[in-house]
Amino acid sequence: MDISDRYLGRPWHALALFSGGLDSILAIKVLQEQGLNVLGLHYVSPFFGKPHLLDHWKKTYGIEALPVDVRRLYLDMLVAPEHGYGKHMNPCVDCKILMLRHARGLLERFGASFLVSGEVLGQRPMSQRADALNLIRKGAGVADILLRPLSAQKLGPTKMETSGLVDRSLLPGIWGRGRREQLDLAAHFGITDIPTPAGGCRLAEAEPAARYLPIIINMAEPGPRDFHLSHLARQYWAGPYWLSIGRNEQANEALEAACGPNDLRFRLKDVTGPLALGRQYAPKAPTDARPEAWPEHVLADAAAFAASYSPRARAEAEAGHQVTVLLLRGGEVTELSVIPARQTPLNWAEPKSSALNAWKKRKP
Ligand code: SF4
Hints:
Number of domains: 2
Number of strands: 11
Shape: elongated
Structural class: alpha/beta
Oligomer: single chain
Strand order of the largest sheet: 6-7-9-8-10-11
Radius of gyration: 25 Å
CATH superfamily of the largest domain: HUPs
Number of helices: 14
Largest sheet: 6 strands, antiparallel
Bound molecules: iron/sulfur cluster
Order of helices and strands: EHEHEHHHEHEHHHHEEHEEHHEEH
């Protein structure tokens, strides 16, 4: 049974974008207080979504929500968002448009007549200015069916209010960046478990956003498993070559689990050290390099670099000895003898926020 089936046939009045943040909780609570049935849609992408908390939200806040996986759709948008990125790699306006447009397509299935979002006028610089709210409403094709209950008194009346389906006089008029009014409203509903304000979107955080850039720039078809890999371990790039190196045993296991059929694994043979994973992929543009099938000199360079993260292998290097690195490709195992080195001809480097900022500036 599809998980959404359990919510079918119930008398839903509205579907709400539900991140699990305080604003999205309150947006649903103020409508529940009017006797309206609102089903939350919890969107999940490689960058946000906590579907494991669905039961917690139901128990703690009395909110039922359905996980909605939009990974593929989201990645297609992220590569070239029409309205650009915010401070990091967050395409907030396009993100909201994508989710609302998708939610609009679910209304009929659930017998609901309007959409709800917890946006607060003036709260965020990119997506919650008055002009951005309008742009989102129109871009998603939901101008007549979207209610933003938390800022309702600061926005024009919607059809849902003028028709009497929603009592506008009972809706708040919150605006701006403060949280006082939201906290007062939470107290009114007896909510004591207040989610932390950080939105939980990795696209809006500096370090993960910097890690995503080389994936987007270099790969012909970046997929969810590529962004997942970028979260797991130390990340290094040498031109289009991508190497992930485990930080500890847990990360080594995560890398092992994330290994795909075309991936390369580098493992020290006789001394302990991290697992390193090289991802081979089809490049976005023609290049003299071969990220889809690493040449011998790149394999040797990556092996020497990865080995340098083992203190015992480094000690061997200081004594002038080579170490043996096992290269695992599918079922094939090759031995590479290398001198561990942090500085190698290929110059592996971690992705930097400055590169992301420069790239955004160059974009038309
Ligand atoms: S912070 Fe992330 S989830 Fe929120 S609107 Fe922006 S891109 Fe979307």
